[in-house]
Structures are given as structure tokens and as C-alpha cells.
Amino acid sequence: MAFSLLFDYVIISGGTAGVALAARLAEDTSVSICILEAGKDYADSENEDVKIPGKYMANLGREWDEGIFNVPKAGAASDRVLYNPRGKGLGGSSLLNFMQLIRAPVSEYDALAASLGATDWTAAEFPKYFKKSQHLTKNQPAGNQVHPLTSDPALYGSGPIPNTVPVYTPDIATHYYTACKAVGMPFNPVGGSGNNGGVWPALAANIQPTECLAPMRGAKNLTVITEAHAGRNLFTGSRATGVQFQDQKESATGTSGEGRTVHAKREVVLCAGVFHTPRLLEISGIGGRAYIPDGVPQIVDLPGNATEDHPSVLCLCETSLDSYDVLEDPRHYRARTKDTGPLSTATLFYSYLPLKAFMDPTKITEIQRLAQHAAVQNTDITSPRTLELFKKWLHDEETYQLELIMVPMGLPILPGGEAVPGKRYIFFSIVLMHPFSCGPERASPTGAHGLEVDLALLGNAIDVQILTAGVQFVRKVIEQDAMKTGAGVRAVVPGPGPLDTETADA
């Protein structure tokens, strides 16, 4: 392979952040940029699943889904290996087409500065970077005129990530909105802007490289190397000046596959995501000594290794209305992928809830009492400031503690939720916003993808109680007449029987 070994910027991973960053940097023709991406470039792929927004569930477990698995260790979910979808290819996890990009409330951004010490990262500073990275397209009302989603163009700029108002609303939407209003969640026409209460269909954030990198493809100052597995960062003193990588294309053809190196005159930028960025730091000698592999000299002592993820409990239901499950019919498939068809955008419905909206007051008091005794010595959270912030938010009546997503299709990965041909489904994802459970990840030569991940999901009683209350709240939603009678919704997994923490954990 012929390519320059010396660039101004080397970006590790061509995912959501890496592609957007490369597109911005490449606008300056006086600098050279190299992207190292472990996966392939699917821009010219004949497989339609990776290109059609409404086919997002079809992408799980495919070649472009790396699939990070949580190792089974101590915690409430310790008896099972848990799956975390992760895109692998140019475009990163956006290849999976969930395509959601939702802004947090002002209080959460300001907490980065006020509570965690990141003084330049406040709610006043973030919008300028949102505008640099995003632009708004198809800004017409989503669905019918009774429930239009209106997005303020002033919140967006001219950046490479297109944000699209959903152009298709499934039949169940009106019934769902009615049920949500009955339980205290009215329709929110500006949801996703930071004011995220109520219920609303999310904007789709599509960073497919065919769009984001299209203006830059063929540019002399941008080199994209796919199937390049990044390894150690190289340092001059304490400054990263290069990256070793393995060329998998050459390995596959049997030509060489030996290690290669690219060098950076200005910066090496790690954009490899929440799992692989720490791994690359550790194998390069940055991290706590216990997490740096044997034989690698420690360059920077960066103590602490506690990765937080948002554990999700899934609830599957049948419905009598059309859902995305019926869209595979070849008689209608092509027409429905057009700009205004059901598959043209990924339509998901969101709600963000404070504790008071879904949890019994006595249960709230109980988890607040549990949190009083929480300390870094007896919880998974290793940062005292993060722990104190999470404890404070349990007493704040406005802080969102639960994310509720309704998806108008079945869920093929849910045990016991295998689709029956001819039936139509929806599912709910009940997501914990500020988990007290977290755990380490470490570089491992024997682990899948060079990683061992243990997030200790549901290892804390506070997390279990909040998620259990979330499942009970979903049951309340689907029992509303608009859902039960109007949309023919009935629970499948978990079923309608008694619910306990073991059921919620499943």
C-alpha cells in the first residue's frame, strides 16, 4: 500500500467523532489528515441494511457490529454475558443506524464545570461546538399536524452531521402520545433540545460517511486507511507523535500484514470510543499501573478505571397496528425506502423522567437512604466528586433519572422475544441515566477485541430499584385504554405476571 507516513493529524477511528473531525480539519487544504479505521468502508456496499435508516434492528450482530460483551462477574447480572452493540467501519456506530443525537439539560452540562472541575465545559460553551458539528435538514413537521415536532434552526449550524426530523410517523404514535399524556407525559414539540420532558420523536443524526466525507473524498490532504487495527501510540517525551497499526487487508491476502507506523507532526487524536480509547491508552503506557500490560513502560500515571454505561431493561409487546415488522414484504419494500417512506428515517419515541414521575415516594426515600451510606470505598464509583453529584441528583426533583424509548418493531436479540411471523411488535428500552454501578475495562491479549470489560451492571441496589420502577411504569403506560384497546398492545416479555427484581433483571 502506498501512502505518506507523515501527516499533520492522525485520527484513530473513523467513527462518529473521527469522521466529523476529519471533515472539519480537511477544509484547511494546508494540513494533512490520516484516519485509521479498523473496519471497512461500506459506502459502496451492496448490502442495503447498512444504508437504510429504518433497518436499524437488522444490523445487530452483522459484520459491521463489533459487539462488545461484558464479562460475567459480580453483580446482579453476573450469570449472563451482556451484549453492547458497537459499529465497526467507516462511520462507526452510526452504521447501525440508530442515529440518535440528543442534547442534555443545562444542569448536566454545567455540572461538568461546577462539580467535576471542567471549567470550560458549560451549557454556555457547548452550543458553539454543536453548531460546528451539526446541521438541520428536512425541517418539516413529523407525523400529523396534531403532534408536530418543531426544531429551532438556530440551535444548529453548518457542520457535517445532518440532523433530520423524522418524515414518517407509525400508526401507533397517536395512541402512544395519548397514553403518555394520561400518565403525566404530554407531547413535547421541542424534545431533544435539552428540554427533554414529556414524549417526542427524536431527530435522526446521520453521520454516514457517504454524506459527511463525500465533499472530502479524493481530497489530496485526506488519507483514509480502512481495516487498520491501531496499536500503541508512540511518544517523544510525553507527547504522542505516531501510531503503530496492523494492516488487515494485507493480512487477509497473505502478502504481509506486518506492523506499520504513521507519524503526526501536530496531534494524534484518539476517537476510538468508550471502550477502545482506554485500551489504546493502556497499551501505550497511559493509565494506572495495574491496567498497563506487562512489559509496557508507564508514561503517564492516570489512576482510576471505572467505566459507566447506561444499563437498559427491555420490554416487548404485541400490537394490532402496523409496525416496522411488516415492512419486509417485497411488494412494498422498495417504495418504503424512499424519502418519505417508513424506512427513510429511524423513528423512535423518547421520554426523560425525574424520579417523581415514575417512582413511589417511599421507594425514592429508600434509595436516598441507601445513597447516604455510599462512599468510594463501598461503591464502584471511584471519583468522590462524581459520587457526591449522583447522590445530590437523587434529591433533585428535576434531574432526569430514566430514559424511556419506545421502538415500533420487534427485538430479535431479546431472549423469549422471538418474532412470530405475521405478528407486529413494539418494544420499550428503559435506560438508567446515572448508574451507581460501574466497573473496569482493561487491555487484554486474550480478551475479545483485545479487551476485558466488566461494567458490574446492576451491581448496586439503587440501580435495580430505579429500573424496576421503570418497568412498572411501562406497564402502567401500556395498560392505558389508548394502548390496550386502541392499539391492541399486550405485554410479551416480561409477561403480565408479578414483577420482581429478578424479572426486571432479565
TrEMBL record:
The keyword Signal applies. Keywords: FAD, Flavoprotein, Signal. Residues 1-22 form the signal peptide. Its cofactor is FAD. GO terms for molecular function: flavin adenine dinucleotide binding; oxidoreductase activity, acting on CH-OH group of donors. Transmembrane segments: none annotated. Residues 7-291 form the Glucose-methanol-choline oxidoreductase N-terminal domain. It comes from the Eukaryota. Belongs to the GMC oxidoreductase family. This is L-sorbose 1-dehydrogenase. It comes from Mycena venus.
